[in-house]
Amino acid sequence: MANTVKLEIVTPDRKVLSEDVEYVGAPGALGEFGILPNHVPFLSALGIGNLYYKLGGKTYYVFVAGGFAEVSNNKCTILAEVAEMAHEIDVDRAKKAVDRAEERARQTKEKLDFARNQAALRRAMSRMSCQRSGKDAGTC
Ligand code: ATP
Fold first, then answer.
1. Is this structure's pTM higher than 0.90?
2. Are 80 and 97 contained in the same domain?
């Protein structure tokens, strides 16, 4: 029995990560799910949030938004619409995105696409928490 699972994270633009890891926690569209080595085949849509993986006693964080996760043959493939490792996140940009979303919510109540604005806000806040978690864990 393998004691690691291969984690691959890809977006339409690039390969973000390919690593043998001990555990993956990910934000499924219906809630967080966890993958240990030798997991049964599994498929889930991804929500907006922070994926994390454990390796050598450390926890690493990756922001993901939308897409799918598939597990088969001891490989966990994350096909994300958007993904960034914690160290890649531009926190100032995320703060500005929060400010813009809050300003839109204040200024344009009648015309506001609420779901779109909420998603932008959630992406920005998740990016900030991802980077903070990575820093706290000493892996960013
Ligand atoms: P913004 O309004 O700042 O563009 P967004 O949430 O609308 O944020 P996305 O559509 O999720 O941006 O992503 C567009 C591209 O920009 C993706 O390649 C994504 O990885 C990158 N990106 C967005 N925000 C950040 C950030 N704060 N740090 C690093 N990369 C980012």
1. yes
2. no
SS3 label, residue 138: coil
Give the number of the atom of ligand 1 that is nearest the alpha carbon of residue 100. 2
**Per-residue pLDDT of the chain in tens (140 residues, 90 and over written 9):** 889 999 999 999 999 999 999 999 999 999 999 999 999 999 999 999 999 999 999 999 999 999 999 999 999 999 999 999 999 999 999 999 999 999 998 887 778 889 999 999 999 999 999 999 999 999 99
Q: In terms of domains, do 93 and 48 share one?
A: no
Ligand 1 binding site (Cβ under 6 Å of any ligand atom): 65, 82, 84, 88-90, 93-94, 97, 120, 123, 127
- What is the domain count for the chain? 2
Closest C-alpha to 43, from 18, 76, 19: 76
Of 51, 47, 46, 42, residue with least CA distance to 71:
42
Are 83 and 97 found together in one domain?
A: no
Which of 17, 50, 78, 93 maximizes ligand 1 atoms within 8 Å of its Cβ, making it the mutation to test the pocket? 93
- List 24's β-bridge partners, or say none: 35, 53
Print the domain residue range for 111. 89-136
Pair (122, 55) in one structural domain: no
CATH number at residue 17: 2.60.15.10
